[in-house]
Each structure stands twice: as C-alpha cells, then as structure tokens.
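Here is one chain, start to finish.
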Amino acid sequence: MTSPVPFLKNLTIAVSGHLSNGFVHGDVQRLTERYGGRFEDLDIAACTHLVASQRAVDVEFRKVQEASITEGLQIVSQDWFFQSVEKEMLLDAKKFLLRIPFRKKRSKDSEKPSVKKEVDNTKVDKKTPKKLQEKPPAKPSAKASEKPHEKPLAKAYPKTHEKINEKEQELNAIIDDDHVGPKTDLVVWMDENHLIWDAILIKDSSSINSKGTVTAYIPEMERLQLLYNLKTKTFHFGAWGMGTRQDPKSPHAKFEKYFQDRTGLSWENRWDDPKEGKYVFVPRIFEDVEMEDTFFSGDGKDSLALSITQLPSAVYEVLGVIFDHNQKPHIEESIKNVSGGRLTRQPWRVRFTLRAAQSLLERISELTLDRFQRGNDSRAKLLSILGKCYLALMWHSDLDAPPKWGLPARSKDKNWVKRERAALGLLNNLSFALDLVANSTNVSKNQILNRAYRGLGLASMTPVEPGNAEHKALVNFVINSSVPRAHGFSVQPINIFRIEREGEIERFEKYQKVHSTLVGGRRLLFHGSRAVNWIGILSQGLRSDAQTRVTPESPVKGIYFADVSSKSAGYCRYAPGDPGSCMLICEVEVGKKPQPCGSAPALGDIKAMHKQGHISYLAAGATDFSKWCDAGAVHPSLAGVQMPDTSSGRSVSKMLSPGFGKYPHNEWVVYDPAQIRQRYFVQFTTK
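Its structure:
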C-alpha cells in the first residue's frame, strides 16, 4: 500500500545510534518506504540523510564517519524525520543538523577525499505501487544469453561486486549461526538494488485440548538466505529452522520458490498482506554494526571499545559490580522473569527470537497507526495473524493457559505496543549482557566495561567529586536518612554518580505540561534493586509493567520509592559489607496530594486517580521526617524539589490515614515512568 503523500521520494535515509522516545531503526525503515523514500543500511555514501543520535555523533560511529566525508549528506536528528512524517511534508533539514562545526571540521580536515553520491535520476511511474522495501532486482537484458547469476559476478554485476567487497564484514556477520561449514569468504547476497536476500519466516501452531481451549503456542521458524562465495563466485541457498537445507543448485530460483511455497507470496511481493495459514515474512531488523560489535566482538580489537575515552576509575568499579561474570545466573533468571516465563526452552536462540519478535511488533505497530485507513475487518484479520505469531514466539509452550489474542480498542493497542517494545528492548539488553559476561575471557576487563557502558546508552555518568559541597550533602542524605534501629544496618556510600538518561528530561518536562493541574510535588526519593536489574533500569529506565505484560488488556504495576535509604537498600538483596549494592536517588513528581493508603484504586487505576486529583499513591509510615527542605542546596538543578531535612529528626506522621499505621516508614508509588528523573546512582555498603 503506497503513501498518499510520497514526500520522501528521491531521498535515501540511513540511521545510526539508539533512538529515543521508544523509536527503533525499524520505524525509520518502515516510514521511509511508506512515504516513497529508500532506506539504506550499508551504503552510507549513497544516502541523502543520516538520522543519528547525538551519542552516535559524539563517539563517531562508523556510519557517522562515512556520512561526514560524503559531500551533500546531511546528518540530522530524529526530530527532523518524525516531525516530517507527522506533518506529511519535508521539513528544512538545516534546522535539525547535528554538530555542524563537527561536520565542517571532518569535511575540511579529513585525509579521505569526499565521496560524491551518484544521483539516481530514474523516473518513477506514479501508477506503479511503491513496495515497502527496496526495489526488486532489475531484470536481465534480453540480449543476455544466460542469467546474470550464472555469469561470473564481476562481469554480471560490476557495481554490485564492488559494493559487496566494501561491505564484506557486515554481510558476513549476518550469516545465520546454524550455517554448516566455515563462513570464510561467504556473504549474504546483496543485489544491485541493495536488497539483502535474508528472510525470517514465522508460523504459529496451537495445541488445543478437548474443550477447545488453547493450551500452548508453538512457533515454527525458518530463515532463508542467499549466500555468495567471494572466492569461488558461486551462490548457495540456505534454509534453517525446521531442519537445515543448503543447496548450491539454482540458488536464486530455489530461494524464490521456497519463499513462495511457505508464504503464498512471491519474493517481489513479500510486503503484501500475509496469507492466513501460511508463514509470515519478517524482515531483518536493521541495527548499527557498531552497537552489535560493542557486545559480541571477542577479539579485543573492536574500534568502538577502543575509541571510548578512558572512563573514571569509579565508573569502572561500579560497572564491574553490575557486569560481573558471577551475574550470569542472575541475568538468566532476570530474562525469565521479565519475559513472564517465556524464552526459557525455545528451540531457537534467544537473541534471534527477540529480533524476530521486534520485527513482528513493528508490523503490528504499523496497523495500530492505521495511517492508510484500512477497514476494521481487514485490520482485525491482519492483527489476528500477526498477533498469534507474536504470541507463539514470545510464550513458552509449557505455560498454563496462555493468553488468547484478541483485537483491543485502538486506544489500548497503541499502549500495548509501546509497553511490549520497551520490554523487548530490555530483554535485548539482558541477552546482550548475558553474552558479554559469558564471553569475557578473551578481552581485557576495561574493554568489556567500555562495551558495557556504551550498551547502557546513558547520556552521562559522572562521579560526584568526594569532598565538594554536593558530595557532602548527598552522603549526609544517604547516611542520615537511614534508620539502623528499624532495619538492622546503616547505609554507607562508596561512590556517587550524577547520571542522565537520553530523552528523560524532555519526557519529564512534557509530563509536567500535560498534567499541569495535578503536578506540584517533586520529591527526592530512593529506589533500590538487585545488581542484575540495573542493566535494564539504567538502559530502559524504571518501568511499572516489566512482569505484567500478557495481552493488550494487561494491568499495570507501580514503581516504588522511599525517603529512607535503608528501606530502599533492603530491596537490593545485599550482604553486610558487600560492595555490590546500588540504589538510585530520583526526582519524582508525586503531585500536590498523593492518594492515601487504603483508598487508592486497585492495581493503580490511573484514570480514576486523575479524576480525584492524584498521580501517586502514598503508604504513609507511622513516623516521618519532621521537616522537608529545598534540594537546591545539594545542586542548583534541584531547586524546587523537596527532600527530607535529616537534621530535624523524626516524629509521628501527619500523613496517616485514619485506621492505617502498619507501615513504619513512607513508601511512594507512581504509575507513569514519565514522572521520574534518575538523578544519582549510589554504590554503597552496609554496616
């Protein structure tokens, strides 16, 4: 289905770095092709625009380096792209350029000659529907006596041969892990239109009992690839999943026939609506090779880890706690918990399954946007097909009573997609971390931690200098807010870091504006968790729904905070004297009047709370700090935020609800991650 406004026509767009606000590379790919443009993953010199994160520019990712020496290529923020899509018109890219002085310096001082793009002047027939991915391979000349793929490659596709040689490393890296035999000199075929012949196929099958109830979802997955040997100049067709098949005879035809047999669609029409009862085509998820190398190159030579400036010793120390090799069983347990019991016995690798799930979710997301005004029957049918495949992928076959996919209200399915996308991002980070700690023997410790730091995607993590006023105030807050008599220990900070997550400030400020009538109670509070959980918390943020995602009708859990450091430390599963404990100090918007204990709607009924003027829930303790003060004394950026005045002592709480006094100390609950700004990360011990 083509876009009614192909305003991206004649543009070629690539992406580099992690995008904020829940967007992924697949969003840029899908929308670029929907609106008449072309998405490029490998040949950056052929692009007109590179949508990049500021971090990708700061550390000079590979794509950024190539883009900066390409004449006329504009490196822009994601705002340019998504605002253009929202308005369905091309905005002025000059207003969204990233690091203009940096780009000029690169263009002027680079020893490499500027790369001039070849402009494609091919006219597009407006009557011909634009496919969602790259153009189909060009047909061979009628004068040719044999098919192009039967000729030596250099003669049949001279430009293609050149491009494949340039991208040999990337095209070799995506060969399926189940490929039999050596991968030396092999690449996944990329044709003259830059289309990579790589497809994941998924089909769901359900186990149904005598009562007609679904008792299990069982995914059937296959991966098709057209491989090319650079040395022998021969093609091979490979299919993996339900039994390995590798066939060197007529590989192009075999690939296309196999694809059509499984999906009911031709390879050229692979983006058409999937057929009921057939396999669903899932495209490869585009990711920065730099980010992939961050976690998986084990030779100690990856350029990203080496290019990162030496981190402060305190940062290495706390990262060593989070990414310690002893965390492996805890990371595995965390993957199991976050996935709700899923992915524990899947026949396919966890990372591959997650990628396939991500790609499926992007197709579901496309339907929730409903930009092309599908009829509800058509939309319901497609959501049913894709949704069943998704559940088959993401639900373990031994689970009791797996959910039945149903079409939710449109307002709810968007929220479900958003939550599920965040969960998949967390699961990906956990699986990355698992590979990182499991394959750390061949790489120096600092290189591993450099990769780990980059993988967390923090905008900044700066040690607060011991001895300065900010550090003294924070140490005083942590130590004097603990209650040793109640919890049996006191909290002693080891290292304190000022942290910032990309996009979190903007999200927090937006929440303040949208809920202007309800906000007005920012507090500086503690949040504690096990060491393994920080991989997800620092990279994805605090989330309320990590273990309650079932179907689009799922309830929401809350995010808990305390104003007593020792109470939050109790959630860290510490051992006395153990340096492997961490907690957050967050700026939390609890509103003008938190919902008191005993009257809050069940499971955080946010709409009902808003109607009553609440955006948080307070389980008031029997005692409270006698006074609260302005946190601007800690740091100017905290002006207006309230924190306990630990010098005032404690007294009987004034916030207790009649009949409630079972909690010794305050516990605050919020339901929207946008109410939270992570401010400080504290590594501590207890005594």
